[in-house]
Amino acid sequence: MDKQPASSWSIHTRPEVIAKYEIFERVGSGAYADVYRARRISDGLTVALKEIFDYQSAFREIDALSILHGSPNVVAMHEYFWREDENAVIVLEFLRSDLSAVIRDAKRRKKNKGDGLSVGEIKRWMVQILNGVDACHRNLIVHRDLKPGNMLVGDDGVLKLADFGQARILMEPDVVATDENQLEEGSREPPEVIPDYVNSSQGEQEVLSKDEYFRQVEELKAKQVVRYDDTDKDSNAPDGDASCLATCTVSEMDDDFGRNSFAYDAADEEALDGGGEGLMTSCVGTRWFRPPELLYGSTMYGLEIDLWSLGCVFAELLSLEPLFPGVSDIDQISRVTNVLGNLNEEVWPGCVDLPDYKSISFAKVESPLGIEGCLPNHSGDVIALVKKLICYDPASRATAVELLNDKYFKEEPLPVPVSELYVPPAMSGPDEDDSPRKWDNYREMDSDSDFDGFGPVNVKPTSSGFTIEFP
Ligand SMILES: Nc1ncnc2c1ncn2[C@@H]1O[C@H](COP(=O)(O)OP(=O)(O)OP(=O)(O)O)[C@@H](O)[C@H]1O
C-alpha cells in the first residue's frame, strides 16, 4: 500500500504514540473512530491504530477486547494509549479485508457467471464467526453490532470479530480484566488476562443446554449484576428509558443508512444509556441486522440479540444479498413481518409487553414468505439452521455453541481449510469517504422514508404517543 497523508492530524501530535509507531494512511472511519495503518518501530509489525472520539465507545472496546484477549476469532488488541482529555488510541492487529468484501466479491463473480461461495467456504466462514461469538457470549459480552463489515479478515483467511464500541458486559466475569481506575493514568499495557475460555480445550467445547445457558444469564440479570460503564454511573436516567421509536425515529430516518451503525449524540446517549437499573438502550446495532425486540424498543435484552444478527449474516453468506435491507425502522419491521408473519403471543408469548408493540400494527400477513422463500435453492438442513436464529422469540434462538455442534458443520461438504478461503482486497481505499461501497449502499436504499411503499397509513395520537396502522 502506498503511503498517503492521513486526513486528521490529532493522532500525529501524540508523542507517546509516534515514539512507538510510524503512522501511514487512514484505512477506515466509522461513527466513532478513525483507523490508520501503522508500523511498530521496534519490530516492523504492521498494526492498526484506532483513534476513538467517544469516551463510552473507547471504554467499551478496551474493556471487551481486554477480556477477549487471546480468542482466536476476535481482533487482538496489542496495547492502548488513553490520557485524560485525549481520545483513546488502541493498537490492533492489522487485518486488511472484511466479510462484506468477501460477500461483495462472490456476488460479482456470480454475476459474471462464475462461482459464488461454495458450501465448504460458507461453512468455514460461519465456523469462524460462531467461534468468535461463542467467545464473547461465554464471557457474557454482548457485541450489539454484528454485521459483515465488523468481521475483519486477514490475508491468511482468519476471520476476527471487531468493533466492540457498542459491546456491553452483562456481568463481571470471573476474571477481572481491567481496573477502571487505571484508565486515566495514561498509557499502559493492557492487562495480560487470558479468559478461562482460552485455557479450556480449544477443540470440543462444553455444551450447555440452551435452557441452562439462558437460565444462567437470566439469573445473573435478575441479580442485577450488570456491569456499568463509568459514564453510566454518572447518569440518573436508566439505560434505555425511552425507545428508539419513541425518541429518535426522525433523526434516525434521516441519518442512518441500514448498513451503518446507529449513532446518537452524547445527550441522547446519557438519557438512553444511563444504566442504573440494568436496562439497556434499544438504539444499538445496524438496522439490517437489528432484531425485532430492539426494533420494538426493548430495553431488557441479552445475548440473543447477537444471535439474530448472526442469522442475518448466515443468510447473507448463503444468498449474497442482505436478508432484511430495511430503509427505515418501520420498513425493517415490515420486511421481517412479511417473512416471518405477524408478531403475536402465539409466536412469542410476552411480546405484547414490548414498549412499542401497541404503537405499531400491521395488517395480517396471510402467507408469509418464510426463510425458505428468501433462500431458494438451499437445502432444508441449512434453512432449518437459519430458522434457529431468525425467530421472533429470543429464548428460542440457538446459541453459538449449539450451532457449532450441529451436524451441518460436520458433514460433507466439510468446511474448507482456512488457507483455501479467498480473501479479496477491501473495497474502500485510504481516505475514501466517498468510497464506492458507501455510495453503493446509499443507492441501494433509494428512499429513506418510513412511509414509501406502504400507501396510506393511519396515525392516531394516544396517551403515550401515537399509533401507526398499516393497511
Ligand atoms: N484492525 C483493523 N485492521 C484494519 N482495518 C481496520 C481495523 N479495524 C478497523 N478497521 C477499518 O476501519 C473501519 C472503521 O473501524 P470500526 O468499525 O472499528 O470503527 P467504528 O467507528 O467503531 O465503526 P462503526 O461506525 O461501524 O461503529 C473499518 O470498517 C475497517 O475498514
From TrEMBL:
Residues 423-471 are annotated as: Disordered. ATP binds at K50. One of its GO terms (molecular function) is cyclin-dependent protein serine/threonine kinase activity. Residues 435-446 have a biased composition (Basic and acidic residues). One of its GO terms (cellular component) is nucleus. Residues 21-409 form the Protein kinase domain. Belongs to the protein kinase superfamily. CMGC Ser/Thr protein kinase family. CDC2/CDKX subfamily. It comes from the Eukaryota. SMART domains: S_TKc. Keywords: ATP-binding, Kinase, Nucleotide-binding, Serine/threonine-protein kinase, Transferase. Its EC number is 2.7.11.22. Residues 460-471 have a biased composition (Polar residues). This is cyclin-dependent kinase. The keyword Kinase applies. It catalyses: L-seryl-[protein] + ATP = O-phospho-L-seryl-[protein] + ADP + H(+); L-threonyl-[protein] + ATP = O-phospho-L-threonyl-[protein] + ADP + H(+). The gene is LOC108841908. The keyword Kinase applies.
